């Protein structure tokens, strides 16, 4: 009889002991009884029979079924899991579930599933391709089949479904189900490096430094201004690794993962790139997972959770746009993929490369204090010039749909010169509020106590906090007046306005209302680069790493709100946004400029950015953080609590504060106070921020306190969670 320590997917911060006739390897999935349910758990360890860890031997249940013949979570990923549940104080079973593809969580086989392939029939084998010479696509397809069978999906993509069908209908080919074989390093058979630009001096220095790190753990920050050729550095730095049969894992922001990014890597090396993002089907995700694990994929590009992809021959991890907020998971297991990447690179003894034009202050600090190697690209690649930033004083200016006359004039010049203009608006919808012109009453979402956003095109109001919607009211609920007016400007209104101000220019709006689904965004981006539009209006989406060679002007309509946020990270986020937006302009031959329209033209943050750039701003912001005793100079966690009963949520956090105080008088505590969004979906939201100069005592205090927090009498009645190294206080 063996005793197994199993991670079971339940929200409890512990492992569970089960018995089995023989010991099982760590990383094997098992089906276990849990109360009335049967769950898929992962074996973490075999416990020694004499160990005092085993209590109540008679009560122990046994494993019902062993799912895997061999471990599907390898040693490094198991270590990572352990680190995750300890560092984030999370339930082990939930950690392992988060790490596995959905189908494996459900207990499906980890072996490859059969795939549809097209191959020649015996008739086809005896036929000549010139019988198809009147149908060139069919002929090309047939000729390809003469060399080898092809996946049905790939065939339809390459030759078109009608051609594939026609060849099959002529009995020349047939579809068969085959269990594919996985071959490690298969990319070496097709790999061929395409023509590449000669790196400039700074790029060469960076590439050489990265080449020296092969087979060693090291973290580098590549701080390179927008358009400086960071991607080119990645491409040249990974080339020798790929050629040596090593796999490269590249993490990119949620919205930055475009077919253009993927094809750049595919084209350079003439290899198949594995892609992982949130909109992939479960089956497709599992397939990439399997191919990566078998060592068949040389490059895997994915968003946050791709950091859990198993690798057979790891060579390097790259985190592109490493400052991006989407690398932090904001619910459930609140991990930061950048931190995990560091942890993982260390386990594999491979280098980690972080790249950004606007590094997170955390990363910059590590580069400045020597913990990371610091690589610089200060010039734009291919001779492109830096974008000129300017502040535009909007005070006392008449605004047309939120745009001043001076800005309209500048926009006109750029459009007349045949260039594209990007207009950034920080909110989607028509207007952020609807109010009564007679009594001033604002139409509010009662569940969130926030004004509804007007969506004129849908003739509805939408709450941007809970996504609740309602029809547009005809009269004020308070005074019944029928004169309702909008306040503030959103993308829809700017789009309307620009249509009347620039009737000759074609424009496109890009926000989450207009680009639902990944394909829509991609086709729109392609159309922009074909110069089908002169005016681009949009939200944050437009700032994310896109290459717009024809944009020469970026206009920011309003950044005043962000200048006065209560969130200490707001200046950093604003500086990153402004810099990334500016980076969309002047990327090719034509120089670019950016105008920031504001009512606070002398604000020090704006002045610093405009005159000195992000690098200067960030270094100054670090000294301010240090003086104020804020991260990255201290460690933090936040306990959040939500309840329909505001007093209960507050008193739970007060209880937490009491527990922490009794454990340690060294913790600095702020709160409980209301979150920046005080109410959402009918629940009042509070938080308690806990800080300490050192990470270890802070985490130890939390670890010791957690059981007591769980047993506070309000705990079962409220929703609460712990967020380690929080980045978002909304
Ligand atoms: N050494 C070089 N010589 C000529 N062109 C180059 C060189 N390096 C890069 N480029 C080109 O310059 C453009 C910008 O490069 P790249 O996309 O790599 O920059 P980036 O720093 O990743 O951009 P961003 O962070 O702003 O998205 C690309 O079109 C790229 O092909
Ligand atoms: Zn709401």
Notable traits:
isomerase, GIY-YIG endonuclease, 24% strand, hydrolase activity, six-stranded parallel sheet, 5 domains, alpha/beta, 21 helices, metal-binding
Précis, in short:
The protein is an alpha/beta fold and 730 residues long. The chain is built from 21 helices and 34 strands. Helix 18 (570-582) crosses helix 19 (604-628).
Question: Can you tell me about this structure?
Answer:
By secondary structure, this protein is an alpha/beta fold. Helix content is 33%, strand content 24%. It folds into five domains: 2-105, GIY-YIG endonuclease (3-Layer(aba) Sandwich), CATH 3.40.1440.60; 115-178; 186-381, 3-Layer(aba) Sandwich (Rossmann fold), CATH 3.40.50; 388-431 and 488-625, Rossmann fold (3-Layer(aba) Sandwich); 635-724, Alpha-Beta Plaits (2-Layer Sandwich), CATH 3.30.70. It has a seven-stranded parallel β-sheet, with helices on both faces. Strands 16-30-29-19-28-27 form a six-stranded parallel β-sheet, with helices on both faces. The protein has a five-stranded antiparallel β-sheet with strand order 2-1-4-3-5. The longest helix is centred in the C-terminal third of the chain and has 25 residues, at 604-628. The chain starts with a strand and ends in a 6-residue tail after the last strand. Bound molecules: adenosine-5'-triphosphate and zinc ion. Adenosine-5'-triphosphate (ATP) is lined by residues 197-200, 203, 224, 226-232, 357, 381-382, 545, 583. Zn(2+) 1 binds at residues 436, 439, 476, 479. Its EC number is 5.6.2.4. This is Replication restart protein PriA. It is an enzyme of class 5 (isomerase).
């Amino acid at each position: 009889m063996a005793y197994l320590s199993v991670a079971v997917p339940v929200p409890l911060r512990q492992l569970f002991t089960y018995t089995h006739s023989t010991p099982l390897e760590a990383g094997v999935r098992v089906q276990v009884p849990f109360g009335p349910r049967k769950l898929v758990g992962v074996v973490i360890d075999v416990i020694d029979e004499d160990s005092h860890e085993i209590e109540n031997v008679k009560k122990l249940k046994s494993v019902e079924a062993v799912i895997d013949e061999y471990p599907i979570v390898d040693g490094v990923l198991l270590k990572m899991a352990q680190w995750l549940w300890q560092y984030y104080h999370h339930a082990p079973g939930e950690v392992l579930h988060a790490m596995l593809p959905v189908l494996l969580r459900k207990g499906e086989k980890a072996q490859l599933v059969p795939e549809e392939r097209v191959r020649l029939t015996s008739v086809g084998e005896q036929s000549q391709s010139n019988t198809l010479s009147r149908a060139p696509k069919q002929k090309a397809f047939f000729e390809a089949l003469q060399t080898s069978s092809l996946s049905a999906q790939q065939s339809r993509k390459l030759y078109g479904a009608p051609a594939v069908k026609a060849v099959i209908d002529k009995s020349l080919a047939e579809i068969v189900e085959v269990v594919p074989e996985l071959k490690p390093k298969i990319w070496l058979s097709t790999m061929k490096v395409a023509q590449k630009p000669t790196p400039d001096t700074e790029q060469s220095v960076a590439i050489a430094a990265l080449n020296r790190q092969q087979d060693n753990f090291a973290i580098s920050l590549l701080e390179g201004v927008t358009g400086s050729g960071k991607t080119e550095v990645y491409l040249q730095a990974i080339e020798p690794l790929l050629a040596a049969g090593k796999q490269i894992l590249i993490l990119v922001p949620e919205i930055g993962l475009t077919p253009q990014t993927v094809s750049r890597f595919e084209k350079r090396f003439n290899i198949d790139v594995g892609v992982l993002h949130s909109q992939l089907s479960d089956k497709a995700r599992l397939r990439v997972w399997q191919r990566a694990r078998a060592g068949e994929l040389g490059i895997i590009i994915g968003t946050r959770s791709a950091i859990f992809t198993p690798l057979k021959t790891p060579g390097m991890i790259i985190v592109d746009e490493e400052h991006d907020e989407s690398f932090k998971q904001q619910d459930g297991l609140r991990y930061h993929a950048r931190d995990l990447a560091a942890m993982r690179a260390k386990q594999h003894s491979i280098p980690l490369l972080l790249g950004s034009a606007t590094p997170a202050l955390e990363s910059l600090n590590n580069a400045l204090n020597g913990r990371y190697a610091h690589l610089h690209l200060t010039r734009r690649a291919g001779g492109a010039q830096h974008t000129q930033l300017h502040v535009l004083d909007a005070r006392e200016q008449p605004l047309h749909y939120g745009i001043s006359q001076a800005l309209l004039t500048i926009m006109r010049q750029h459009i007349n010169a045949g260039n594209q203009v990007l207009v950034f608006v920080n909110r989607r919808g028509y207007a952020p509020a609807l109010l009564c012109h007679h009594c001033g009453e604002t139409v509010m979402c009662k569940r969130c106590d926030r004004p509804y956003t007007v969506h004129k095109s849908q003739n509805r109001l939408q709450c941007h906090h809970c996504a609740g919607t309602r029809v547009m009211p005809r009269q004020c609920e308070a005074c019944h007046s029928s004169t309702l007016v909008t306040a503030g400007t959103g993308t829809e209104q700017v789009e309307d306005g620009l249509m009347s101000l620039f009737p000759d220019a074609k424009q496109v709006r890009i926000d989450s209302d207009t680009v639902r689904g990944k394909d829509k965004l991609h086709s729109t981006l392609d159309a922009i680069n074909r110069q089908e539009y002169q005016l681009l209006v949009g939200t944050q989406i437009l700032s994310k790493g896109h290459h717009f060679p024809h944009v020469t002007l970026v206009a920011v309509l309003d950044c005043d709100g962000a200048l006065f946020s209560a969130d200490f990270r707001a200046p950093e986020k604003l500086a990153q946004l402004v810099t990334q937006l500016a980076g969309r302009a002047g990327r090719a031959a034509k120089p670019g400029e950016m105008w920031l329209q504001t009512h606070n033209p002398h604000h020090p943050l704006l002045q610093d950015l405009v005159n000195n750039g992000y690098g200067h701003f960030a270094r100054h912001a670090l000294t301010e953080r240090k003086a104020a005793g804020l991260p990255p100079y201290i460690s933090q966690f936040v306990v959040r609590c939500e309840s329909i009963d505001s007093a209960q949520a507050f008193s739970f956090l007060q209880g937490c504060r009491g527990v922490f105080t009794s454990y340690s008088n060294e913790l600095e505590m702020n709160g409980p106070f209301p979150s920046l969004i005080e109410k959402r979906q009918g629940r009042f939201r509070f938080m308690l921020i806990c800080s300490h100069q050192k990470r270890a005592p802070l985490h130890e205090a939390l670890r010791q306190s957690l059981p007591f927090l769980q047993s506070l009498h309000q705990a079962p009645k409220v929703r609460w969670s712990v967020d380690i190294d929080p980045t978002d206080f909304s």
